[in-house]
Design a protein that fits this description.
The structure is a single chain. The protein is α+β, with helices and mostly antiparallel strands and 711 residues long. The protein contains 13 helices and 40 strands. Helix 3 packs across helix 13. It is globular.
C-alpha cells in the first residue's frame, strides 16, 4: 500500500482556478460477510485496527492517513474563499444570541440548580444557590476540567448529584469515542472520591446515602457489558449484572423519589429493568419483567407504587401502568393513564403528590399534570411549532416543575408550573437588542407523502424580503424514534436574514407523530423515510417557497441515509448536500463484526443475515447505489474517533461520488483527528460548524465555485 501515497498528495493546480482533487487508488475488492458480496474498490480505506484507532488515532495505517490528509487539504483549499463569509455569519449569529440566556432553575434538596455560560468560557458552569438565601456555589466547571485537553465532553447524564446534595459525579470523554471516565467529588470540599473508573459507558447513579456508585462498564469493543457497584469508601467494585448481549443498550438511573436505582436494558424492540433499593444498595437486583419480543417498558416510582410506561397490549403510543413494589411483574400491572392513539407519552416526571408527563401530539410536545386523585391539567402554547426542555433531576419535594419554552423565532424562556395550584410562571424573555422576533414567521405544513400520509414540516422565514422562491436549508434525521425539535438557533436566523428559508422535515423515523411514526420505517419499511423527505422538498418547491437547485440539505448521523439517498436519487433537486458523521454505507458498517453498536441497530435497519433484509438494504444504501450523474455540491464530515459511524462512510462516499459525477460541482470530505461522533463540543465549536455549513450552502446555492475539475 505504500506505493499509493504518490497518487494522493497535495492538490494539483488545473487550468481553472480550482485544484484537481486527490484521486485515491481504486483496488478491486469484494465486500460483505452476509449473503452475496458486492464490489467496493475503496474497501482498503477501512482500517483493520478500528478499536486501536478509536483509542489512539496515531494507530491508523499510513496509506489511509495519507488519503485523509490529502482530502482534508483539498477541502480546506476549496473552502478557503468562504472564510470571510463564515466570519460574517458567526458575527451576525452572535448578535442574535441573547446576552444572558434564560437559566432553567431546578429545585432539589434545598437548592436551586442551574447552568450559566460565562463570557469566553467554552462550556456552561453548573451552579447552585440555597433556596433560603446564601452565596452561589460552583457544582461543576467543565471549562476547568477541559483545560489542557484537546478534546473534552460530558456524557448526557452528567453532572449527577447525590441525594444528600453533597456529591457531584460526572462522566468525561477525553478522546471523543465514548471512552468515558467516571469521577465523583465532594461539592463543598472539592475532595475527589472516585478517580479511577476509566473504562465506562457513561451512565451512573448514586445510592441513597452517597456511599455507593452504580456504573456501566465498557468492553474493549466499546459496548456496555456489565453494571458495577463501587464502594466509594473502600474503592471496591462488585459486578452486579452481566450483559453479554451486544444487541442491548444498558443504563442506570435513580427514580425521582430516590427510592430505587433502576438498571435498564433496551433496544428498539424490547427492554428489561431491575430494581435496587437505594437504601439497601448491596441487595440483589430484582427483575421487574423479563425481556419479551416487542414489549418495551421503563420504570419509575410514585405514590408508593411503581410506574410502568409501556407499549404492552398494543399501546403503540404508550400507557402508564402501576405495580406493587413487592410484586412488579407484568401480571400485576394496572392501568393509570390509558393508551390514546396519536398522543405519545414520551416521559414521566413524578413529584411527591403530582405526576407530570410530556406527550407528543401532531409533532408538538405537551405538558400534562396529574394529581393523586387523577384530575389533570394541560398546558397550551401559542407557536405553531416549538420546543420544550424539561431538565432531569427535579426534586421530589420541589414546589414547581421547571422547564424551558422556545421556537425557531423565540429565544428560550424559563417557565415554572406551580404544582400546588397549576399556575404558570413565565420568566422574562431574554434580552436580544438586535433581534426582533416579529420580523420572522414560523409555519407548520402537512405534506402528503407518496403513500398519502401527511408529513409535518416546520419552516422559518423572514416576514419581508425576497418575493418568490428563496434558497432553502432543509434538515432531517428520521431514525431511532428521535423527534426533531424546532429550537431557537441564532445561526439559522443569521442565514434567514440573508434571504433563506430554514426548514425541518419531520419525516417518519422520528416519533413526532407517535411511535407508529418510526415503527412504520423499521427494517423493510425504511424507504418511507426517504420518500417523505423528497416529498417535503418537492412540496416546498410546488408552493413557491424554493426552487430546484436552490435547496441545500443537511443530515447528521443516521440522517445521512436521508441526505445520501436524496443525493443519489434526486441530484437535480439540490444545490448542495451536507453530511455530518453521515451513515451512508449501512452494509459496510454491519460488516464490522466488533462494531461498538453491536446488534443494537438490527431492529431498526434489518438483519443482513436474512436475504430479504440484505436485498432491501442494498436497494437503497447510498454508497452502493452511487452511479454516474450530475451530482450537487457535497460536503461530508467525519472523525477518526467516531465510535458510531466509521470515518469510512463520509470518506468513501465522497471519493466514489467524485469518481462518478458527470458535473462540475465540488465534492469534498473532511475527516478530523480530534472529536467523536458529534465533533468538538461546546458553543464555540458549534458556532464554527454552523457557519461552515451555512457558508457552504450559500456558495452552493449561488454557484460560486462554478465548474470545478473532478479528476
Amino acid at each position: 500500500m505504500a506505493g499509493l501515497v504518490g497518487i494522493i498528495g497535495d492538490p494539483v493546480l488545473s487550468s481553472s482556478r480550482w485544484p484537481v482533487p486527490p484521486k485515491p487508488a481504486r483496488i478491486p475488492r469484494q465486500a460483505g460477510i452476509f449473503g452475496p458480496t458486492r464490489p467496493d474498490e475503496y474497501l482498503w480505506l477501512r482500517t483493520e485496527h478500528w478499536h486501536d484507532v478509536l483509542r489512539n488515532v496515531d494507530a491508523l495505517e499510513s496509506p489511509i492517513r495519507a488519503v485523509i490528509d490529502a482530502e482534508n487539504r483539498y477541502t480546506d483549499t476549496m473552502l478557503a474563499p468562504t472564510l470571510p463569509l463564515q466570519a460574517e455569519l458567526r458575527g451576525r449569529a452572535a448578535q442574535i444570541e441573547p446576552a444572558a440566556p434564560a437559566a432553567i432553575e431546578v429545585e432539589d434538596g434545598g437548592f436551586l440548580y442551574y447552568a450559566r455560560q460565562a463570557g469566553g468560557a467554552p462550556y456552561p458552569t453548573h451552579l447552585r444557590r440555597p433556596l433560603g438565601g446564601g452565596a452561589e456555589q460552583v457544582v461543576l466547571d467543565p471549562s476547568a476540567l477541559a483545560n489542557g485537553h484537546e478534546f473534552f465532553a460530558l456524557h448526557w447524564d452528567s453532572p449527577c448529584r447525590s441525594q444528600d446534595q453533597k456529591l457531584v459525579g460526572w462522566a468525561e470523554d477525553l478522546v471523543g469515542s465514548g471512552q468515558f471516565q467516571v469521577r465523583v467529588r465532594e461539592i463543598a470540599s472539592g475532595r475527589m472520591l472516585v478517580t479511577d473508573i476509566d473504562q465506562a459507558h457513561g451512565s451512573f447513579s448514586f445510592d441513597a446515602a452517597g456511599h455507593y456508585l452504580f456504573w456501566v462498564g465498557r468492553s474493549t469493543e466499546g459496548r456496555a457489558d456489565a453494571v458495577w457497584r463501587r464502594n466509594m469508601r473502600t474503592g471496591e467494585d462488585v459486578k452486579i449484572l452481566d450483559q453479554p448481549d451486544s444487541g442491548l443498550f444498558v443504563g442506570v438511573e435513580t427514580t425521582a423519589s430516590g427510592a430505587f436505582v433502576i438498571i435498564r436494558l433496551s433496544n428498539g424492540s424490547t427492554s428489561e429493568s431491575y430494581l435496587v433499593p437505594a437504601s439497601d444498595p448491596t441487595a440483589t437486583p430484582t427483575l421487574v419483567e423479563a425481556r419479551t419480543p416487542n414489549l418495551r417498558y421503563t420504570v419509575n416510582h410514585w405514590d408508593d407504587r411503581l410506574l410502568i410506561l409501556t407499549d404492552a397490549d398494543g399501546a403503540v403510543d404508550m400507557k402508564v401502568m402501576t405495580a406493587p413494589v413487592a410484586a412488579p411483574g407484568r401480571a400485576n400491572w394496572r392501568e393509570l393513564v390509558p393508551h390514546r392513539p396519536g398522543r405519545l407519552i414520551e416521559a414521566l416526571h413524578p413529584f411527591k403528590d403530582r405526576l407530570v408527563r410530556v406527550e407528543w401530539r401532531e409533532a408538538n410536545p405537551q405538558i400534562v399534570m396529574m394529581q393523586i386523585d387523577g384530575r389533570e391539567q394541560e398546558l397550551t402554547f401559542d407557536e405553531p411549532a416549538y420546543a420544550l426542555e424539561v431538565p432531569p433531576g427535579q426534586g421530589w419535594d420541589a414546589s414547581a416543575l421547571a422547564f424551558g419554552y422556545e421556537s425557531p423565532r423565540l429565544p428560550r424562556r424559563a417557565q415554572k408550573l406551580v404544582l400546588a395550584t397549576g399556575a404558570l410562571k413565565r420568566g422574562a424573555t431574554p434580552a436580544t437588542p438586535q433581534f426582533d422576533p416579529s420580523r420572522y414567521v414560523v409555519e407548520r405544513f402537512a405534506v402528503p407523502s407518496t403513500d398519502g400520509v401527511t408529513v409535518p414540516v416546520t419552516l422559518l422565514r423572514s416576514r419581508d424580503g425576497e418575493q418568490g422562491p428563496r434558497p432553502l436549508y432543509l434538515y432531517a434525521y428520521g431514525s431511532y424514534g428521535d423527534s426533531q425539535t424546532p429550537t431557537f438557533q441564532p445561526a439559522d436566523l443569521a442565514l434567514v436574514e440573508r434571504g433563506w428559508c430554514f426548514a425541518i422535515a419531520h419525516v417518519r423515523g422520528g416519533a413526532e407523530r407517535g411511535n407508529g411514526w418510526w415503527q412504520q420505517v423499521l427494517a423493510r419499511g425504511k424507504k418511507r423515510t426517504f420518500e417523505d423527505f423528497i416529498a417535503c422538498a418537492d412540496y416546498l418547491v410546488a408552493k413557491g417557497y424554493t426552487a430546484p437547485r436552490r435547496i441545500v440539505a443537511e443530515g447528521f448521523s443516521a440522517g445521512g441515509l436521508v441526505i445520501g439517498t436524496a443525493f443519489v436519487q434526486r441530484p437535480e433537486l439540490f444545490a448542495g448536500i451536507i453530511g455530518r458523521s453521515p451513515f451512508l454505507d449501512p452494509l459496510g458498517e454491519m460488516d464490522i463484526k466488533d462494531h461498538p453498536l453491536g446488534g443494537t441497530a438490527t431492529p431498526f435497519w434489518g438483519d443482513p443475515r436474512v436475504p430479504e433484509d440484505y436485498a432491501y438494504i442494498l436497494s437503497y444504501a447510498p454508497y452502493d447505489n452511487l452511479k454516474p450523474a450530475n451530482y450537487p455540491a457535497l460536503l461530508t464530515l467525519g472523525s477518526l474517533a467516531d465510535d458510531r459511524v466509521m470515518y469510512t462512510d463520509p470518506l468513501k462516499f465522497a471519493v466514489r461520488a467524485r469518481a462518478l459525477t458527470t458535473g462540475g460541482n465540488p465534492i469534498m470530505t473532511r475527516v478530523a483527528s480530534v472529536g467523536g461522533h458529534v465533533g468538538l463540543p461546546g458553543p464555540a465549536a458549534d458556532a464554527e460548524r454552523r457557519a461552515l455549513y451555512h457558508a457552504f450552502a450559500i456558495w452552493a446555492a449561488e454557484g460560486k465555485w462554478g465548474s470545478v475539475p473532478q479528476r
